[in-house]
Amino acid sequence: MTKAPPLNMDGLEGVSVECQKSHQIFMKDLHSFKYWALQMYDATAKLPSGFLNGNIVQFGDFDLCMKSKNVAHNIYGQYCLANIQVEVPSSPYLAALYNLVHSHALLRSKLTDSSHRIPRFSSIQWAICVPHTCSPEDVDIAVKYELKHIFNGTEVQYNTLINSDLCSSAKPEVWPTTTILGW
């Protein structure tokens, strides 16, 4: 798992205790090759081929994420689509790479554009499958942490957005009896 490690949620300042506990169980079970944890890991997008040619939207496997669950620990898969906006670097070399990754700026969009603009051509979209106990804010903290290490020592600047509307959980909803009877 060292070539494409799972998103780290453990020990990060600002990440909820519930998220960290579920993530620790996930990591333990992943290293033991438990099926539910392998599903969650497999459902998360990995670095694809063609990234330098603009292949920057990676949806992972939504259905597989929704199937991943550890009922004994009450952990269910949650699929979140992270949006990452990379700013044009001032270095000519990095600017050339940026230009390749963004298909020579054929169409442009920003994180702040309304979400009805589909597809978003300029932002990187990356699917992440995490325990349902992790909020979009928890996921955002973890994504920023990973990007900080990826771009360490470079001039690359970025912004992230994990919109709660783009997170879906497989955790069964519990409805009050009055809601069920009134329906």
From TrEMBL:
Species annotation: Popillia japonica (Japanese beetle)
Superkingdom field: Eukaryota
Q: Which InterPro entries match?
A: Nose-resist-to-fluoxetine_N (IPR006621), O2_lipid_transport_reg (IPR052728)
Taxonomic lineage: Eukaryota, Metazoa, Ecdysozoa, Arthropoda, Hexapoda
Q: Any idea where the Nose resistant-to-fluoxetine protein N-terminal domain is?
A: 16-169
Listed name of the protein: Nose resistant-to-fluoxetine protein, N-terminal domain
